[in-house]
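Exam revision sheet. Question 4 asks you to relate a sequence to its structure. Input first:
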Amino acid sequence: MKDLKNIFWPVKKKEYKKFIPMFLIFFLISFNYNTLKIAKDTLVITAPNSGAETIPFIKVWVMLPSAIIITYIYSKISNKFSRENVFYIMIFIFLLFFILFIFFLYPLRDFLCPEGLVKKLEHFLPVGFKGFISLIRNWPFTLFYVMAELWGTIILTVLFWGFANDIMSVNEAKRFYSLFFVGANLASIVSGKTSMIFSKNIFNYKIPFGKTGWDQSVLFLNGLIIISAFFIILIFFFLNKKIPKIQGEQKNFKKDKISIKKNFFYLAKSKYLICIAVIVMSYHVAINLVEIIWKNQVKQLYPNAADYNFYMGQIMILMGILSTIVAIFISGNFLRRFSWTFNALITPFIILITSILFFSFLFLKNFNSITILSFFGFTPLVMSVFFGSIQNCMTKVSKYTLFDATKEISFIPLDKESKFKGKAAIDGIGSRIGKSGGSIIHQGFLIIFSTLSATAPYIAILFLFIVAIWITAVRSLGKQFNELASQKETISVATALD
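Answer key, structure tokens:
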């Protein structure tokens, strides 16, 4: 029994005062992240004269500059204030925006629409720029989308993990972090269920807000996000007052700053690192290419904002349940029993097979097989949404478990310099190019073909090409990984014999 407890609950009683507050902070941050993730897509995609085609334009024209600006603000604040005060300041920036959004931007969204500018742009720009015009027409929703995305980048990735690494010892981190991720999966289940409950909200005339049930749902969801943020601040304040910071050599260790240019040149010198970068970029481009098309199909099936939000809540719950099951019972066993190459190939084959099914039903709309499907009570739209949902869930579950694990394992055989500089290069260049690459591709096709439905066949062909490159890079890296790993083992044995 004690061994089982150490496996599933490796936390000592004396550590509860540190672990439980940290677990709660991570749970609340993850809850907000997942709730915002659903709400941002719903608001943008179901907005007037908008759709999934707006997202690629937001990611390139607004998201990228905003990320640079918020990173600059963060770096300036970090140079002047302590880590604790930086946390408070950044949280308050988000808090102020969500309060401003729910009490000013959302209620006055129609009044704030720049109709004159929108009409001029519609007159001068081709139909393919509909997404660009939409981000301007519905700019309050565009800002909400950006701040929701930045919550994940700044609050979750930078602030939480920066704080966690500051107060945790290495031994504690090994035991606590896996439980934090279980908490994140539970948060996705709770946020999905919360989104579903409020999506079915009926308009209450006693509440002086909005004109529809969905308007009040937006109020309630934002209210929960704001309340959750206040609790994060309170718990964080408690931790800083009660828990002494752990001092160690890691705290005094300063990493060399590497510019993006130097990152690129360092990465370009190593075939091994190039393969890792190609794998990371391929994932982000591939998932982005399919996801935008899928979200467009979901909007066609659920054009109403409340229905769309409800469906995405269901997807979030499914993703959270599957991630928890895979993380606890499957991924660890797979990593121990099978080769690196086998595990690394699982994610591209999952996205390949499920995406082929998704695109197959997407293209069935144009063929007589629609009659056969109707006989069984289905339509190609329903089936394409279903298989798109399966694709999205399975791919992201695989990404959060096997993909991320194999990526990190691939750095182990490298020397210290390659580990540090290589990881900095790939995290700094590979992921950024991949995330924006898919959006740029969608923009190019939209400008030429005007609609996402028209671009789908070309996106499908390009998607297959990207996955082929991904699989080739995995196979190449697998051979190099085995060679380096065996060399390292040989050196270790020789050193031990000496």
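Marking note for examiners. Residues 258-489 form a domain with the Growth Hormone; Chain: A; fold (CATH 1.20.1250).
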